[in-house]
Amino acid sequence: MIEQNKFLHIIENFNDVIWTIDINTGRFTYVSPSVTKLLGYTVDEALEGVFDANPNNNESYKATQQKILLEIEKLVYSGREYSDMQFEYQMPNKSGVQVWVETEIRILKEDGQPKEILGITRNIEERKRLDSTLKDYANELEKLNIQKDLFLKVLAHDLRSPFHSLLGFSNHIIETLDESNPDELKEKLKLLNQNISSTFHLLEDLLLWIKNRSGKLVSVYKDISFSNLCEDVLKNINSDSKSIQIKYFESEKIALRTDITMLKVIPI
Looking at the whole model, is its pTM more than 0.85? Predict the structure, then answer.
């Protein structure tokens, strides 16, 4: 008797809700007091079976009830003495608020027929919240990895040609250094400097582009001259081309109010 009282004391002070249902009547035969903490119902209300009558029951709850009924039917025709199941679903509390719970049940047989359902139901709101947070982190990490791979591909593609040109031209300067007079050398170094500057701006634009792709680029709007914008863009394009020169003629003054950085990262 002492051991039984001790066991009952443990159950009634357990955070999880422990319950039993008589399969023949479909009624609860026991519900532990922790049901009040979990769902807001009193033990007497729970024993009356108020859960199925709650108008806020969603498809998750209804689907779980159907699975339990199907498992009971299977157990009738099986040679097993019991069947263990576990579910995660939402069910409304007394106030109508949906609560994520996990329920473990064991369907017991007596004389070859399902007799009783023993269940333990617990609150898993915190676990679901952590799962959702971890999933968001995983998705964000996946996006960052995709952006990183894309950036490296673009970087390798767009910088390979300019660097080849720089290496080739610098080698030409070294090879012809003894033959060049100061004026010729000065012109070559000026051209090399322009190419280095153009490549540097290209790298900056690539970094801005990947920053924009990751959603970390902050817009700052100001008034700019469309003519000056075109000149800057054409300067970089023409410096990379030996055979084609693009020119811009302004028919009228055009002023823009925009973010110059955002214009640079617009894909062409």
Answer: no
